[in-house]
Amino acid sequence: MAKIEYVPLFETRQVKGRILFRCVAASILLGICFVFVYRVRFLPVGGGKAERWAWIGLFLSEIWFSFFWFLTTVCRWNSVIRIPHLHTLSQRFGKELPDIDIFVCTADPSIEPPSMVVNTVLSVMAYDYPPQKLSIYLSDDGGSDLTFYAMLEAADFSKTWLPFCNKLKVEPRSPEAYFRTAFEEAVHAEEWLLVKKQYEEMKMRIEAAAKMNRIPEHIRKQHKGFREWDLVSSKRDHQTILQILIDGRDSNAVDMEGNPLPTLVYLAREKRPQYPHHFKAGAMNALIRVSSRISNSPIILNVDCDMYSNNSESIKYALCIFMDEEKGDEVAYVQFPQNFENLTKNEIYGSSFRVIQKLEFRGLDANGGPCYIGTGCFHRREALCGKKYDINYKVDWKKLNQTRVEEHASLLEETCKVLASCSFEHNTAWGKEMGLVYGFPVEDIVTGLSVQCRGWKSMFLGPEREGFLGVAPITLLQTLVQHKRWTEGHLQVFLSEYCPLTYGYKKIPLKLRLAYSAYNLWAANSLATLYYVVVPCFCLLKGISLFPKISSLWVLPFAYVAFAHRAYSLGEFLCCGGTFLGWCNDQRMWLFKRTSSYSFAFFENILKLLGYSQLAFVVTAKVADEDVSKRYDREQIEFGAASPMFDILATLAMLNLLGSLGAIKKIILDGNRESKVIDQLGLQILLCLVLVAINLPVYQALFFRKDKGKMPTSVTYKSIILALLGCTAAMY
Ligand SMILES: O=c1ccn([C@@H]2O[C@H](COP(=O)(O)OP(=O)(O)O[C@H]3O[C@H](CO)[C@@H](O)[C@H](O)[C@H]3O)[C@@H](O)[C@H]2O)c(=O)[nH]1
Ligand SMILES: [Mn+2]
């Protein structure tokens, strides 16, 4: 008999376009060298002091940008795509698949509506996977009976929804998303309408309760769990509430057609004002412990409450990686991209992370594995709980016999409560070597890093049909605040003992350390960007030239670097499925984020180092006024609220407007010698004009818009005064 050849469960391919990428990168590097030569050779030694310092500052900014470009280029030098083979998985393992625990986190019923959480929970209950092998855990950091009630409704509706999904091969399996887009099925028309009606009624009940902010008495009587809220004084001060809503082991827990149901658990961990709760990381660690008693599945999927499952096969995709006999055992987590269902065509807030996820993460994957980004991620429980990878580690999935606990559900609830109590972690390794790492607003990144530094790899999967869809922020301020949290957290990681360069030394490849640093240093971009936005503009007003003359050959490297870099970025954006306008918006957000969010993040980190500032996690709202939503759909940037972030944006926009006007005045006054001004200050004028073009929506919001999304008047006055003061100071 011929030797049976080993067929892998997944395949790895090189991403196309590598040669082009490397050629462009090499040519940009050459351009950068020329720019540096120019900066050194023509350093104004004779001129005024101001001129020299402006020049040196610009040079430093350019060095920083080049360094940052180098980091991002290095981490994309190689990149790979993983292609899972589902049929091989089912051939080889058939029904002998492992149990899966699924964690859903929610924190606040007012900005994460229970009706949304229900959809996410239902979508993960309905995976195309044996239901008796699934356990779903909801962590409610809002400690809200509204969310608890919504879960009861979900448990009930799942009895209809799961068989319906199976029969009709429904996709996606979030009822809200499905009924919003799907048309009535001709074959099962009656049933289809019935299920839809049942869903809508459930949604109405949940929303009605949320609106009243109270659970009606007759409902409260139906479940013992509600009694727990008699003891709850506030969301920051309450005992552990743990309710097993569906016990998968119970033979009576079946759907309408008599098939078993997945286990469903509601958990609000204990919170006391005197104990830090560590935000999402704390919630996840409580879930890890509680689930280890109840189901203890070897694989854990975690999603944010807005990230519903959009692909019912994701679990199997991930298992193709974990269960591959040759390469699977070293993988700690399989990360799916974060995709969003509420993006408009041209993504005004640039929230799609297209290029980052489609190209950069594949580069990380080739160098040891993508970072963990907090949601849409399948973990190996052991790796997450602190185990170090060891070359002899091998899982025999077929022998991995799941021994389930025998205790009755209500006893189990009692014995598990202590695992979610405030004091449980005292003097343990939780939050350090075990579970998610505490102390950072980007618990995901630092946790992924520490897992990788324990010797594990990670992989990235981006199937054609997106695995998860979430809600992207729909106002500018929320986007900026979210990015402030991220970049602040990233920089904090870089400045901590977890700094990838040192912490990962000899543990993960250099390229991966550099790639982590590239993300960690996002906030540090703010200084160089602010300088580039402000100083050339001031110098323009004063008539100081900081760039080569248009007529000189030295202009070429500057022009080439700027053009090639941006043109390539546009090409990538389009290749990843974006639009031209989308790219322009992305560039604007690039500027906005660097000057506002990143600056705040940068300075707050400094304050933190000095001991003045504290860790915070501002939860992103997932709902908005109808008015705001309408403007979002029309792709109008939402300013609306007064915020220091907007003060900065508006002032910078005004500065560049004044700078451009000043330049135009100079050109006109110059009369027939006009070519001289253009020759000397050409590049600077161009820079100013490009910035003005990028800021067009800001001027519109400052002076022309009448709707509620316009810039608040206070910001308008402030920005005009500040910009005028700045310009006057610069000129004299
Ligand atoms: O005290 C908290 C705060 C937040 N959350 C949950 O954490 C998730 C993420 O919060 P969100 O406000 O939506 O933040 P995003 O910026 O959208 O989250 C991204 O960035 C976070 C790190 O900053 C990661 O944890 C997330 O997975 C990732 O999606 C949500 O499900 C929240 O309910 C908690 O459970 N407890
Ligand atoms: Mn979110």
Task: Provide the descriptors you would attach to this structure in a database record.
cell wall biogenesis/degradation; 8% strand; 732 residues; binds uridine-5'-diphosphate-glucose; glycosyltransferase; 13 strands; transmembrane helix; alpha/beta; three-stranded mixed beta sheet; single chain; eight-stranded mixed beta sheet; binds manganese (II) ion; Spore Coat Polysaccharide Biosynthesis Protein SpsA, Chain A
Please give a quick description of this structure.
With 732 residues, the chain is α/β, with parallel strands linked by helices.
Question: What does this 3D model show about the protein?
Answer:
The chain is α/β, with parallel strands linked by helices. The chain folds into two domains: 18-75 and 509-731, no CATH class; 86-344 and 352-472, Spore Coat Polysaccharide Biosynthesis Protein SpsA, Chain A. Helix content is 52%, strand content 8%. It has 26 helices and 13 strands. It has an eight-stranded mixed β-sheet with strand order 5-6-4-3-7-11-9-12, sandwiched between helices. Helix 4 links the parallel strand 3 (100-106) and strand 4 (134-140). It is globular. Bound molecules: uridine-5'-diphosphate-glucose and manganese (II) ion (MN).
